[in-house]
Amino acid sequence: MFFLLTSFTVVAIPYVIERFGLRVRFGLFALLFWLFVFQFVLIFSIDALLQNFATSMPDWLESMLTTLGGFAFVTIGITPIITLVLAAAYLLFALGQWLFDKDEKDLPTPQTHFTVAIDGPAASGKGTLARRIAEAYGFHHLDTGLTYRAVAKALMDQNMPLDDEFLAEKAARSVDLTKLDRAVLSAHAVGEAASKVAVMPAVRRALVAMQHSFAERSPGAVLDGRDIGTVVCPDAPVKLYITASPEARARRRYDEIRSNGGGANYEAILEDLTRRDARDMGRTDSPLKPAADAHLLDTTEMDIETAFLSAKTLIDQALAKNTH
Ligand code: DC
Question: Can you tell me where the transmembrane regions are (predicted)?
Answer without folding.
Answer: 29-50, 71-100
